[in-house]
């Protein structure tokens, strides 16, 4: 399986996402925002970072990049697309996911190992988890407050499209503790925390077993790889 | 050159953490009378050409679809700022356009 990771000007975690893809047993393909070519990949990752320095609004200018035309078409045709942090912001700006992300309610950047509860284990990126499972992956953002109007929030919850919720601490003022959501089809997932930073022992969050041994993020990438194998 | 000013504000019902921080600073520095501060954005679009209805429609679309995100923000104003020379030229243009109908543009008429 070939998974494209799109680099935008100011992307920060594109290389980490590529590494996560490799560790999950797939081939990462580096894609460039200025191109119109998805190079025949089977899935896409929009990585974290600060595209265009967060100018205008986080992810707004990147969502107007040339390659986003193809990303939107591919997403609407069912290709698995994962937006992490800045990538999540791009997906909302591109109207592939509802809601928006605003400055953290405490107005400061936050970086912590964050516990999440899996609310939907049927998406392309979460099928390796179980509903109710708690996972710990790093979170690092300044503008991660998820907001939408009440009607949209009710609809997201009613349709089971809230994929992750923050547990113990709501780190950014997100409404209803929402950390990540999916589209109706379940192929597009966006979340603020960073699964690609918890994929290899020695570099992940601390666990009761050992320091930096957390690899809960790997499940995102193995989920989409397994889905491809099942379909093949 | 004509300048088009677009004002965008965070939606009134949303928390504005930046504004809240500034309001806190005002209170700390001996300005207790201000109960709230909200921070928005001002865009200045410079155009090289006439400000006609087509351009205004284009600006409206840009303001709603690119300069703001309707999920979190509102476009609260679009203003057209012209220099005195441009105002005079526009008045003359309008007068010429309406010469056959006897219309005379009032001084200082703008869009």
Beta-strand proportion of chain B: 15-25%
Per DSSP E runs of 2 or more residues, the count of β-strands of chain B stands at 3
Largest sheet of chain A: 9 strands, mixed
Mean pLDDT score of chain B: 85
Q: Give the number of helices of chain A.
A: 5
Gyration radius of chain A (Cα, Å) is: 16 Å
Low-confidence stretches of chain A: none
SSE series of chain B: EHEHEH
Structural class estimated from helices and strands of chain B: alpha+beta
Helix content of chain B: 25-40%
Tell me roughly what share of residues is in helical segments of chain A: 10-25%
What value does the average pLDDT of chain A take?
A: 97
Q: N-to-C SSE series of chain A?
A: EHEEHEHEEEEHEEEH
Q: With helices defined by DSSP (H or I, 4 residues minimum), what is the helix count of chain B?
A: 3
Stretches of chain B where pLDDT falls below 50 for ≥5 residues? none
The greatest inter-chain interface is formed by: A-B, 19 and 12 residues
| Rg of chain B (C-alpha, Å) | 20 Å
């Amino acid at each position: 399986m070939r998974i494209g990771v799109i680099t935008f000007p100011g992307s920060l975690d594109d290389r980490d996402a590529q590494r996560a893809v490799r560790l999950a047993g797939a081939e990462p393909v580096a894609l460039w925002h200025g191109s119109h070519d998805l190079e025949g990949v089977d899935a896409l990752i929009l990585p974290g970072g600060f595209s265009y320095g967060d100018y205008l609004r986080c992810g707004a200018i990147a969502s107007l990049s040339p390659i986003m035309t193809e990303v939107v078409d591919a997403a609407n045709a069912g290709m698995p697309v994962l937006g992490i942090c800045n990538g999540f912001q791009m997906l909302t700006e591109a109207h592939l996911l509802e809601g928006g992300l605003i400055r953290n309610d405490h107005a400061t950047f936050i970086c912590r190992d964050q516990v999440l509860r899996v609310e939907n284990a049927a998406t392309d990126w979460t099928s390796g988890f179980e509903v109710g499972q708690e996972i710990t992956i790093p979170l690092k953002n300044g503008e991660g407050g998820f907001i939408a109007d009440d009607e949209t929030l009710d609809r997201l919850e009613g349709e089971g499209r809230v994929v992750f919720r923050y547990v113990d601490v709501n780190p950014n003022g997100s409404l209803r503790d929402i950390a990540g959501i999916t589209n109706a089809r379940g192929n597009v997932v966006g979340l603020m925390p960073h699964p690609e930073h918890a994929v290899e022992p020695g570099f992940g969050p601390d666990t009761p077993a050992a320091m930096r041994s957390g690899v809960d993020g790997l499940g995102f990438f193995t989920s989409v790889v397994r889905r491809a194998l099942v379909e093949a | 050159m004509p300048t088009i000013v677009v004002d965008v504000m965070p939606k009134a019902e949303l928390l504005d953490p930046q504004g809240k921080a500034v309001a806190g600073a005002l209170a700390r520095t001996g300005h207790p009378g201000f109960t709230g501060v909200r921070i928005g954005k001002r865009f200045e679009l410079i155009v090289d050409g006439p400000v006609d209805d087509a351009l205004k429609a284009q600006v409206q679309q840009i303001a709603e679809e690119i300069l703001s995100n309707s999920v979190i923000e509102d476009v609260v104003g679009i203003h057209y700022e012209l220099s005195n020379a441009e105002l005079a030229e526009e008045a003359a243009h309008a007068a010429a356009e309406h010469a056959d109908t006897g219309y005379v543009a009032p001084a200082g008429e703008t869009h």
